Amino acid sequence: MLRAGVVAVQGDVSEHAAAIRRAGAAHDEEVDVTKIRQSGSVADCDVLLLPGGESTAISRLLAREGIDTEIKNHVEAGKPVLATCAGLIVASRDANDDRVETLDLLDATVNRNAFGRQVDSFEAPLDVTSFDEPFPAVFIRAPVIDEVGDGVEVLAEWDGRPVAVRDGPIVGTAFHPELTADSRIHDLAFFEERAVEV
Ligand code: GLN
């Protein structure tokens, strides 16, 4: 049984819960999903999901509830995290926006809404390292990843920019992998490399 926490202070939560359950089922692994709205339950989770939404609101609520420190402890313990869209912004080292208090868990700098300036949202077939077929990536007011540190592996690029990255236990995506029936990104983050012993 894998215990997954979906950070649910704001943003899309139920789609992520469904996606990680689907990915688990493909590995005969039952997934127990907890929605995290206040401090006290992160330590019980094997893996965490940091969903999209509005990064200013998410970072403020994480700090207010004291969940920010718990997420940092989770990553320090080497436990997996999947951070998507606004979740990626919050997890990054710097978001180029003072209103977002980043957690500095993923060695990357991002630019909020950078794709969104040209086009609000779009879907693109994305070549992801280790995937045989392109992944249908849904971008919604997506951030651009400007710079990544030496230890960061770029898993996918769009328009010459990284849009999926791995930094140790964290996988971050600029797009929303929970919005299609394809759960390969959740698989890659949590199951494929048996990143977590349960
Ligand atoms: N642009 C949003 C932000 O800055 C993120 C959008 C999303 O998560 N779909 O928080």
Q: What is the makeup of the main sheet?
A: 7 strands, mixed
Q: What's the number of domains?
A: 1
Describe the global form: globular
Question: Structural class of the secondary structure composition?
Answer: alpha/beta
**Strands side by side in the biggest sheet:** 2-1-3-4-12-11-10
CATH class category label: Alpha Beta
* DSSP E strands, number: 12
Rg for CA atoms: 15 Å
Tally of individual helices: 5
Residue fraction in strands? 25-35%
Give the H and E element order.
Answer: EHEEHHEHEEEEEEEEH
CATH topology: Rossmann fold
Counting copies of identical and different chains, the oligomeric state is single chain
Ligand catalogue: glutamine
CATH homologous superfamily label? Class I glutamine amidotransferase (GATase) domain
Unreliable stretches: none
Helix content: 10-25%
**C-alpha end-to-end distance:** 7 Å
Q: What does this protein look like?
A:
It is a single chain. By secondary structure, this protein is α/β, with parallel strands linked by helices. The protein has one domain: Class I glutamine amidotransferase (GATase) domain (Rossmann fold, 3-Layer(aba) Sandwich). It is 23% helix and 32% strand. It has five helices and twelve strands. It has a seven-stranded mixed beta sheet, with helices on both faces. Strand 7 and strand 8 form a beta hairpin. The protein is globular, with a radius of gyration of 15 Å. The chain starts with a strand and ends in an 8-residue tail after the last helix. The structure holds glutamine. Glutamine (GLN) binds next to helix 4.
